[in-house]
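Attaching the record inline, Q. Sequence:
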Amino acid sequence: MKTKTLNFHQLNKRIKPIKSDWIIIVLIILFFAGLIIGAYMIKNGENNFTSGIVKSYSSFTDLSNSKSFTILFFKLFSIGSGIILLMYFTGLCALGIPFVSLIPFSAGLFIGIISGFYYKHYMLKGLGYCMIIIFPSMILFCASMLIACKGSIKMSRNMLNLLSMRHSQTQESFKSYTVNYLILILITAMSCLVYTVLTKLFSGIFGF
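Structure, as predicted:
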C-alpha cells in the first residue's frame, strides 16, 4: 500500500502566490475590520464621533440634491482623486507605510458607520439606499484605493531600501508607478460617475 508523501515543491508553489499578495490581504483585512467596527459602533449607540460622520454625510447628500450633475461629479472626483494622489505622494516617502495602512481601515470605518446608520434607522429602506446608491460606487472606489495602498506601500519600501543603499531605484519603476496611479484615478472617476448617476436617478425615491 502506497503512502502519500508531502511534496514540498507543490506546497511551495501553492503558498507562493499568497506570499506575494500578503500586502493586499492585510489591506483587505484592515478594511473589513474598519467596516465591522463602524457598524458595531452604530449598533451599540451613537456617540459624538459617529454622529459627526453621519451629519457630514447627510450634509453632503443634501448638497448633492441641490447641485447640478457636473458640479456633483467634480466635487466627488476632487475628493476621490485627492485620496489617490495623497497615497501616490505618501509612497514616495520612506516612512509612508504606517500612514497608508490607516487609509483602508478609515474607509471601512466610514462605510460601516454610514451603512449601519441607514439600516438601523430606516431598516429595508436604508438597506435599499445603501445597495442602490452607496455600494456600487464604493466597490469601484475601494478596489482602486486598495490597489493604490498596495502600490504606495511597495514604493515606500523601495524608497526605504534606496536610503539604506540596498538597491537603486530605476527610472522605469518610477514611471510604471506613476502610470498605475493615473489608471487608478480613471477608475476613481468612474466610481464618481456611478455615484452621481445613481444619486440623480434614485435619491428622490428614498427622501431621507
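Residues 63-96+123-206 form one domain. The chain has six helices and no strands.

More tomorrow.
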